[in-house]
Design a protein that fits this description.
- It comes from Parnassius mnemosyne.
- It is found in: Nucleus.
- One of its GO terms (molecular function) is transcription coactivator activity.
- Belongs to the AMY1 family.
- Residues 54-81 form a coiled coil.
- By secondary structure, this protein is mainly alpha-helical.
- It has four helices and no strands.
- The longest helix is centred in the last third of the chain and has 23 residues, at 57-79.
- The radius of gyration is 23 Å and the shape is elongated.
- The termini are far apart.
Length: 87
């Protein structure tokens, strides 16, 4: 029986690590979202992949893309070139 204690303590330590890192909350949110989905997707794993970690990520990404475009235009202006166009 004493051989099981180290495994249990390692599991408990790993569980606390996941909680501190926010992994448990993120997984719980995605699974609750899937549970509340009126039309369950064919591929639940794909649903989890698609929705995991998307809390406001699109807004940040769009802001970063806009900033990149702004800096590219400024860089071109400073180099004396025409500003790049989208497309």
């Amino acid at each position: 029986m004493s051989s099981y204690k180290p495994i249990d303590s390692k599991r408990e330590e790993f569980r606390r690590y996941l909680e501190r890192a926010g992994v448990m909350d993120a997984l719980t949110k995605v699974l609750v979202s899937l549970y509340e989905e009126p039309d369950k997707p064919e591929d639940a794993l794909e649903y989890v992949r698609k929705h995991l970690g998307t809390d406001g990520g699109e807004d940040e990404l769009e802001a970063a893309r806009a900033r990149i475009a702004e800096l590219e235009a400024e860089n071109a202006l400073l180099k004396g070139e025409a500003a790049p166009t989208d497309g």
